[in-house]
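step=encode ok
step=design start
structure_in=
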């Protein structure tokens, strides 16, 4: 299989063509600063001992402590976590947050674990990485198949290890455990702001726009619900088990209710039900949804969903990347030639890390904001950065992805250069 990180790095080649940067920057962005691989022993409910592989990668901390989520998925690997930490580095800089990038993950299918096993695994993971995280060093958050409950367990484990309450070590916590109002919906809300800015800029009418969604979890569901309320017509929704399509439009809340009603009573955290169990709608294969003739295709599941094999079949006019890395670099070229605009992950899904930043600020200040303030500040930040990226794209005649990377990489470069470069030390 191709390396996701090698593919992620290819984006920089294009970016460096459009900005003059010292070699120090290129060199620094090639290598993660710290990669930790751990084995997490888990005592299963039936008494067996199982070992799970876990990772934490801190890619670059030149601009501040590193920040990035924790993923539980059977395909988690060091390569994937490294790529995700690289994207987080770019994303935090795109949003001008005082953070570098990191990511973590455990190679596990959490749906196979009981709630007690899941809690023990989450606490075990934190014990394994406790030496390299902290509110001033590296701050995890939720990602695929992790959630606020898990973040609460992890923050508690860290407090027990350090013998003091340090809620700023993890964001995305439950509200009653020092979480931030507005964090749960923040990724979807931020993505909708980016899409709305784009729609306005292109003088499109929201009511006329159809949307197909791949991924209906935390990020995807909140986006779908807010977009539905804003007047977009959600005609297709896919999750890991299949997809549904309704020409007249779907109601995200009802689809979610259905999913939840079918969950296994054994676990509260994950549902066994799938959107494709719903009646009255046409059922599709998950991959078919990607090729629907819609205005906007929203990718909110996993990386590498559009690649060289299916890019040519995509009919959507605009793609909104809520997932990290859902389009490969080769597919990017094909989509660009077809005139399909991609609103890139490092901007489109940055609402989550932005409100995570607000949560960290509130935890450190010990002073909590109301939801209206959180949402307003998110809108201000993401609108400002989106507008700047759209302008770079127009001025330099580059894709929105290259424009976003230019914005992020130039900010990271600013920090690296301030620490001294070859030219500075040799007085060139
Ligand atoms: P989640 O676990 O809540 O949901 C994941 C969703 O993807 C589920 O609906 C699942 O059924 C679906 N899915 C998985 N494999 C699929 C497949 N092969 N085809 C179709 N659907 C599939 O995760 P999430 O937090 O919503 O994250 C989704 C994506 O958004 C990830 O790429 C994540 O890195 C990115 N993201 C999330 C946040 C956040 O705050 N949650 C922030 C930034 C980026």
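sequence_out=
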């Amino acid at each position: 299989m191709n390396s996701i990180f090698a593919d992620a790095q290819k984006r920089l080649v294009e970016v460096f063509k459009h900005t003059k940067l010292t070699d120090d920057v290129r060199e620094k962005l090639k290598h993660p600063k710290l990669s930790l691989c751990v084995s997490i022993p888990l005592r299963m409910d039936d008494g067996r001992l199982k070992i799970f592989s876990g990772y934490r990668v801190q890619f670059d901390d030149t601009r501040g402590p590193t920040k990035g989520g924790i993923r539980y998925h059977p395909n988690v690997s060091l390569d994937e976590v490294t790529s995700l930490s690289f994207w987080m580095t770019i994303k935090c800089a795109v949003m001008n947050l005082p953070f570098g990038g990191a990511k973590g993950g455990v190679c596990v299918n959490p749906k196979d674990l009981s709630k007690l096993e899941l809690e023990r695994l989450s606490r075990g993971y934190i014990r394994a990485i406790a030496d390299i995280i902290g509110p001033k060093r590296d701050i995890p958050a939720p990602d695929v198949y992790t959630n606020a409950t898990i973040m609460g367990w992890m923050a508690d484990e860290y407090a027990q290890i350090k013998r003091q309450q340090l809620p700023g070590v993890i964001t995305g916590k439950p509200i009653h455990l020092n979480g931030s109002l507005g964090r749960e919906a923040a990724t979807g809300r931020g993505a909708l702001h980016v899409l709305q800015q784009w729609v306005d800029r292109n003088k499109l009418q929201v009511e006329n726009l159809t949307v197909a969604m791949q991924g209906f979890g935390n990020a995807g569901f909140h986006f779908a619900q807010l977009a539905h309320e804003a007047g977009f017509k959600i005609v297709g929704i896919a999750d890991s088990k299949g997809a549904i399509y309704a020409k007249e439009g779907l109601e995200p809340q009802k689809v979610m209710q259905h999913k939840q009603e079918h969950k296994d009573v054994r676990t509260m955290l994950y549902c066994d039900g799938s959107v494709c169990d719903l009646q009255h709608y046409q059922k599709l294969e998950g991959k078919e949804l990607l090729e629907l003739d819609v205005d906007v295709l929203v990718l909110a599941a996993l990386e590498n969903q559009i690649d060289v094999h299916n890019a040519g079949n995509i009919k959507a006019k605009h793609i909104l990347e809520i997932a990290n890395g859902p389009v490969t670099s080769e597919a990017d070229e094909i989509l660009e030639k077809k005139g399909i605009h991609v609103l890139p992950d490092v901007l489109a899904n940055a609402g989550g890390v932005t409100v995570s930043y607000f949560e960290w600020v509130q935890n450190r200040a010990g002073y909590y904001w109301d939801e209206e303030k959180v949402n307003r500040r998110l809108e201000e930040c993401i609108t400002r950065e989106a507008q700047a990226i759209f302008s770079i794209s127009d001025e330099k005649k580059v894709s929105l992805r290259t424009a976003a990377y230019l914005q992020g990489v130039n900010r990271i470069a600013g920090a690296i250069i301030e620490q001294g470069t070859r030219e500075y030390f040799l007085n060139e």
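step=design ok
step=annotate ok -> The longest strand covers residues 49-60.
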